[in-house]
């Protein structure tokens, strides 16, 4: 499957095996590209967690009810970025791919600065009703819009009623403790190192995709060759430490490969004195090969321990072996995802 590209000045595509799945349009050109009469879901959708998926399912339900035997398309209206969300769970490319998995056909990305000055009525009229003639609109209970965020989901419902556009407001999605699941809450868990709870709320592992860089190649001298990556800019950085993960990539034959692994996120103090040099260094179990310059996805499941400095590389080697055994045991008790992009 090809990687997602977003071109904010025009149209781009998300494709799998050459088949057009979803078109992504910038706000400036969207009225010419997106068909009228879709069901529109509104929000930022960072992480596309189960709360977001509940909202998208409601949009799909509305599309089915209104379209009958031919369900209406579902589209998402979102932003390229938000001022208060400079660290995210997913890049916009990752979010787009996840939205496509949820059945979204169109994604419109607006520049926050271009619309944040509008009052609520102007936003509804110009950027929803006139631009797209929505058949229905779906948003979350906490959706706010217009200058200063002064207009609420209830205000949107009133505007929709006056215009003959039904608006569904989706209640908060809560966990087993009755606490609201939100992107900000999940980001906090990840940066604190509480990966297992973050994974539970995300509905899946926390994923990081980045190219493999050349490192010092010390790992292969102690029997544990590793790959080295850098955190993508803007992604939430997990607390430094050792994580159980899966490593996914497409091989030279186009086949998806997926392996268990253990990843060190941090400065590698045993072999590196530069504490500002933060990397993701991963030992891939049961794999031999060259992955340099390939874009590899890590899926993080559990934090095993803090990063620590060992007295010598022999002690480090023994600990990596123990960590690898822990990863093997972890995945022996659950089904591997086997998902690749």
Model description:
The protein is of the alpha/beta class and 341 residues long. The chain folds into two domains: 12-170, HUPs (Rossmann fold); 198-332, Elongation Factor Tu (Ef-tu), domain 3 (Beta Barrel). 28% of the residues lie in helices and 26% in strands. It is built from nine helices and 15 strands. It has helices at 30-33, 50-67, 92-101, 112-115, 120-132, 153-163, 183-191, 195-202, 313-332, and strands at residues 12-16, 19-26, 39-42, 74-79, 106-110, 136-140, 144-145, 151-152, 167-170, 206-211, 226-229, 241-250, 256-266, 279-284, 295-305. Strands 1-2-5-4-3-6-9 form a seven-stranded mixed beta sheet, sandwiched between helices. Strand 1 and strand 2 form a beta hairpin. Helix 5 (120-132) packs across helix 6 (153-163) and helix 7 (183-191) packs antiparallel against helix 8 (195-202). It is elongated. The N and C termini lie close together (6 Å). Mean pLDDT is 86; it is low at 1-21 and 336-341.
List keywords for this structure.
2 domains, disordered C terminus, 7-stranded mixed β-sheet, alpha/beta, 9 helices, Elongation Factor Tu (Ef-tu), domain 3, disordered N terminus, 341 residues, 15 strands, Rossmann fold, elongated, 6-stranded antiparallel β-sheet
The CATH superfamily of the largest domain is identified as HUPs
Which percent bin holds the helix content? 25-40%
Instruction: Give the CATH topology of the largest domain.
Output: Rossmann fold
Top CATH class of the largest domain: Alpha Beta
H and E string? EEHEHEHEHHEEEHEHHEEEEEEH
- Gap from first CA to last CA: 6 Å
E-strand count: 15
Q: Which geometry do the CA atoms define?
A: elongated
* Secondary structure tally, helices: 9
Radius of gyration computed on alpha carbons: 22 Å
If classified by CATH, what would the architecture of the largest domain be?
A: 3-Layer(aba) Sandwich
Strand content: 25-35%
Taking pLDDT < 50 over at least 5 consecutive residues as the criterion, the unreliable ranges are 1-21, 336-341
Residue-averaged pLDDT: 86
In terms of structural class, how would the helical and strand content be classed? alpha/beta
Q: Within the largest sheet, what's the order of strands? A: 1-2-5-4-3-6-9
């Amino acid at each position: 499957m090809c990687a997602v590209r977003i071109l904010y000045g025009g149209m781009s595509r998300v494709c799998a095996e050459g088949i057009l799945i979803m078109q992504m349009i910038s706000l400036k050109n969207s009225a010419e590209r997106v068909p009228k009469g879709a069901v529109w879901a509104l929000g930022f959708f960072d992480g596309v967690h189960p709360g977001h998926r509940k909202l998208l399912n409601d949009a799909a339900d509305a599309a089915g009810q209104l379209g009958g035997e031919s369900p209406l398309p579902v589209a998402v209206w979102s932003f390229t970025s938000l001022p208060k969300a400079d660290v995210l769970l997913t890049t916009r490319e990752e979010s787009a791919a996840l939205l496509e998995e949820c059945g979204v056909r169109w994604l419109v990305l607006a520049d926050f600065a271009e619309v944040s000055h509008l009052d609520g009525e102007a936003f509804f009229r110009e950027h929803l009703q006139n631009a797209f003639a929505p058949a229905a609109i779906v948003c979350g209970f906490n959706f706010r819009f217009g200058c200063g965020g002064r207009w609420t989901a209830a205000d949107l419902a009133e505007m929709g009623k006056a215009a003959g556009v039904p608006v569904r407001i989706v209640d908060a999605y809560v966990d087993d403790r009755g606490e609201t699941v939100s992107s900000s809450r999940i980001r906090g868990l990840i940066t604190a190192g509480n990966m297992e709870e973050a994974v539970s709320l995300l509905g899946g592992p926390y994923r990081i995709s980045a190219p493999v860089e050349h490192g010092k190649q010390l790992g292969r001298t102690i029997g544990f060759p590793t790959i080295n990556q850098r955190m993508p800019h803007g992604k939430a950085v997990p607390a430094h430490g050792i994580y159980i993960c899966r490593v996914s990539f497409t091989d030279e034959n186009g086949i998806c490969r997926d392996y268990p692994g253990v990843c060190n996120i941090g400065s590698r103090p045993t072999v590196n004195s530069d504490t500002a040099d933060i990397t993701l260094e991963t030992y891939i179990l049961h794999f031999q090969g060259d992955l340099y310059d390939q874009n590899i996805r890590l899926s993080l499941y559990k934090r095993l321990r803090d990063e620590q400095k060992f007295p010598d590389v022999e002690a480090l080697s023994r600990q990596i072996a123990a960590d690898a055994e822990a990863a093997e045991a972890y995945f022996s008790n659950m089904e591997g995802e086997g998902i690749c992009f």
